[in-house]
Amino acid sequence: MKxxxxxxxxxxxxxxxxxxxxxxxxxxxxxxxPTDTGSQQQTDxxxxxxxxxxxxxxxxxxxxxxxxxxxxxxxxxxxPNYNMIEEGYTRIFLDGSTKYVTFTCVKSETAESLExxxxxxxxxxxxxxxxxxxxxxxxxxxxxxxxxNSVTAIQYEGxxxxxxxxxxxxxxxxxSFIFEGLPCAxxxxxxxxxxxxxxxxxxxxxxxxxxxxxxxxx
Length: 218
Known about the structure:
It contains four helices and ten strands; from the N terminus they run ααββββββαββββα. The protein is of the alpha+beta class. About 30% of the residues are buried. Mean pLDDT is about 80; it is low at about 25-50.
């Protein structure tokens, strides 16, 4: 009788051992394995930039961080990380209450000369920023013809009569040019009435860098 009991006990112990091994394997299989789901989800949820602004691959330094594309035209320019305001033919990139830079493209007209391009683009610029910053004239600007990145342009610097009450002289720096057959302009204005010199210098550097990036492909 005792040998039979011993055999039964051995069988029970063996069966219990097998069950414990099966349970361990099942638990191991159900362990959560590390995956790249988090990083993949972050990539999938990254919003694509729209068809007018994006991160700038061609920005030359930390002054410029984005790219603006003229709608339905192959005209691109890198832009600073300022608040963009849509205003018809003119895009305003606003830096708070001190300064702004603009890109104007007169898509409805052509230009017969640089002077013609300047007249048309500057006029559109004034009307484009009017709801934000009133420009009375552009008569007090010194101009010179230059070539930047194979684009011939009129470069200008000086002051414009700005504001309504009070009226004051605002520093202005920019370029007018013909690109893809259209009158275009990059114009910056310091609209702080105190006209701080450091803002004028920074504005000039930004406009110069933007002009270097004007191109017909992304």
